[in-house]
Amino acid sequence: MGVVVIGPFVLSAAHAAAVAGIIVFLVAAAILAHKIDRRFDNWASLTVAAGIIAARLGHVAAYWSAFAHQPLRILAVWQGGFAGLWAIPAILPVTLWRLPGRRLRLWSVVPLGAGLLVWGIIFRLLAIAAGAPSPVMVLSRLEGPPLNLAAPLARPRIINLWASWCPPCRREMPMLVRAAAAHPGIDILFADQGEGRIAVASFAHRLHIPADRVLLDPAGALGRYYGSRGLPTTLFIGRDGRLRTMQVGEIAPETLAAAMARLARIKSGPAPMPNEKNLQRD
Prior knowledge:
Blueprint: E1 3-6, E2 9-12, H1 13-35, H2 39-62, H3 64-67, H4 87-98, H5 102-107, H6 109-126, E3 138-141, E4 147-148, E5 157-162, H7 167-182, E6 187-193, H8 197-206, E7 214-217, H9 221-225, E8 233-237, E9 243-248, H10 253-265, H11 276-281
Parallel strand pairs: 5-6, 6-7
Antiparallel strand pairs: 1-2, 3-4, 3-7, 5-8, 8-9
Helix pairs in contact: 1-2, 1-6, 2-4
């Protein structure tokens, strides 16, 4: 399972683990505020805020060239992009400021440790299985021969799962189309989920998506196979046909560039032959 669905919200494994860790941290801090010292309440709130802001700024600093011409995109946190290690130097001064004395600072290790432990366990349980093979599945294209997803690959592959009614899909699509033209060493395909040929063809024409890159998946079989019920979802697949990583939700330009660079560096053998397990998951 690669995602968590809570009502209308779809969270990736990383986001769900982070939310769970923060909740456990706040609950543990609330218990300490009740049992030990009320200052733990204020400390916990400031710690979460400082950690999130620092992690976001760390990501922005690492990929500043991608933000320099669009600084307002720093606020687009729904695209993801947090450098967790940057939260540590932000948490330390908040702790020194809001929890005076050695005794309170030692107690602060309890909620921090509990949050980190839950984050690690939840992420481990929810993260997609590395190396999941391509499904035994054949999808039609808008133009050209059908694509056998289980066939050996000549180069790495990216498959974007989308639908024309999905606003974040529409926002990220032009960027993915440009990436497809700029990186011929990686196959970038667009698999529509659940729509008919006429609707897909009309949308692809408006966005100038090459028809031979557009796959038709009217039953949403790819999304089910990879365990993603949210759109958009971007799958990064190595030349051996195995899934390397998966982005659930709108993808940021720097995240796409970094994932493509990692994918291009992977050296792997030919794709494995389909087996009965593939057929059962399809």
